[in-house]
Automatic annotation (TrEMBL):
Catalytic activity: Hydrolysis of terminal, non-reducing alpha-D-galactose residues in alpha-D-galactosides, including galactose oligosaccharides, galactomannans and galactolipids
Protein name (record): Alpha-galactosidase
PANTHER family: ALPHA-GALACTOSIDASE, ALPHA-GALACTOSIDASE/ALPHA-N-ACETYLGALACTOSAMINIDASE
Similarity annotation: Belongs to the glycosyl hydrolase 27 family.
Record organism: Linum tenue
Domain Alpha galactosidase C-terminal: 560-641
Organismal lineage: Eukaryota, Viridiplantae, Streptophyta, Embryophyta, Tracheophyta
Molecular function per GO: alpha-galactosidase activity
Signal peptide, first to last residue: 1-26
EC number(s) recorded for this UniProt protein: 3.2.1.22
Gene3D superfamilies the record matches: Aldolase class I, Golgi alpha-mannosidase II
Amino acid sequence: MKTTLSLFCCSLSLLFCFYLPRGSLSAGVDRCKLPPRGWNSYDSFCWTISEDDFLKSAKVVAKYLKSHGYEYVVLDYLWYRRLVPGAYTDSLGFDVIDQWGRMVPAPDRWPSAKSGSGFAEVAKEVHSLGLKFGIHVMRGLSRQAFDANTPILDINTGRAYEESGREWRAQDIGIKERSCAWMPHGFMSVNTSLPAGRAFLSSLYHQYAEWGVDFIKHDCVFGDDFNLEEITYVSGLLKKFDRPILYSLSPGTSVTPTMAKELKGLANMYRVTGDDWDSWGDVASHFDVARDFAKAEMVPGEGLLGSSWPDLDMLPLGWLTDAGANQGPHRQCNLTLDEQRTQMTLWSMARSPLMFGGDVRQIDETTYKLITNPTLLEINDYSSNNMEFPYVTGKILGPARNHLMRRSKISMLKRVNNHHTRVVGVTSCKDPNANGWSVESLGQYHEQICWRKEDEQLNREPLCLYKRKPLLASSEHVLYGQDNRRLFTSDNGVKSCLDASPRHKLTSSEWKKKQPSFSTCRGDANQMWKLSSNATLRSSYSGLCARVKQVKANDVRTSGVRSWIATGRQGEIYVAFFNLNVEKTLISAKLSDMAKVLPGRNLEDKADCKGREVWSGQRYEAVADSLEMVVDKHGCALFTLNCS
């Protein structure tokens, strides 16, 4: 921790109970009704963090961030992988597993685990600091355990699981064809319809509970990699433990409110975007999805033993590493200060969980003040009626200073581009927009499957894919069924098949521009599709359905202006302006328009409002008609209004 933060040192007494205060909260507030907040190791260490680095980071969090509600310290993925030459994010054969095929901490990085106690000592140290300990886990079973064909632990007997007169092993329950699409050498689904499959998952999560884990980040089970069966079973296990364990789901590519509603009562937070890194494109890609979940009234929703929260991903601020790197923090955040303020303001207005990702040991004063800003944290914890405000207008200007003005109308500059492109993604099969597929004959022996929705209106050829029978072993026919097919396209005679989930992790901005994902034709479930009688195309990998979106190239929503509005617990009104343009922009909103979305909030024509803009610190004694401010490139303004 830099010496510049010495003035900010604060402490918070340790309370182990289900109802805990956050910062200045009064005792008795239900912690599960607030967006989770903490620190995650991924953005600063990728997978390479050691026990020493983790515990030093936890001590900094306890000293400087705990009193601001940052209560979780979460160890991200591959804590079981040995840090040796040849090991990387999708390497095979470098993981440490126990005799039952379960991942255990790599002792070269986690020396306290050498005794066989797993993370028990680390969790004990974290708890002594007044914090909660979290870990990242992947779907199902590791490829390494599958190849070793390890026995399955029966937690009721302490011996190998037996059923029907035989001992069950990893290869009896692992579904190799349903390996995680972006980590195929890492993990695969287990067959949860088998008692032995459920026994294996039970042995995993009971071990995590015994270690003292308070937070589970479950990856490759949501979004494009949706695995509702495993989520449901794991959620049931966590619900039965004698203490709360927060349940987080990832990744968030292709997530829609319709898909997320299938999680009702199962999880506490779930990603709704691709990985967020420190690029403006990643930040800007979050506005639409945040709007959609607020509009669907899912902030919050019903979660596991409490609420659930759409998660916009970690905050990659401060000192960072790179995605997939084999090294720890080595560079500064690429976002400008204005862009960082925009990100933190949007995350707070949308009431996303706040998980700081930078290296807390090297946090600078500017970053610290941003992630502990009291107005933002108050909004994140307690605001209500959070929504995108649609009546904001803007006008691009030359150089100007921030100021507040009164005008009745401001014209908005729009860039019009009528060129459309098609994006193939997946969605819940319950989504009415998923049924647009049909079969067309190409002759006596060949067929193609085409998406025709919107194409006739746009006078363009439909998107079509050829059908190809899977080359499967007899046992695989049972898994997929006779009607499943691979769908391929051909370029100069080279055939590539449609993937349900991309073969690498996508950032938020990459997913926003996602084109159909094709790769070499294989026999795995990620390329198996079934056309149903209701015109949906269902994936054997995730159970989700394919759909095609028509989007405008250089859509105006990647530039222009946006705004959010919310109300506070003391009657205040929060208004945020966001400038997505590359030029300074005059942004305006009328109080009378605010009254349309916040009826009964003293915003009528003769309203007398006083306010303050957070980032400039300016106070306004009379805001009668409208709010206006010139906002810098990619920057934001945040107003707190009190009206009578």
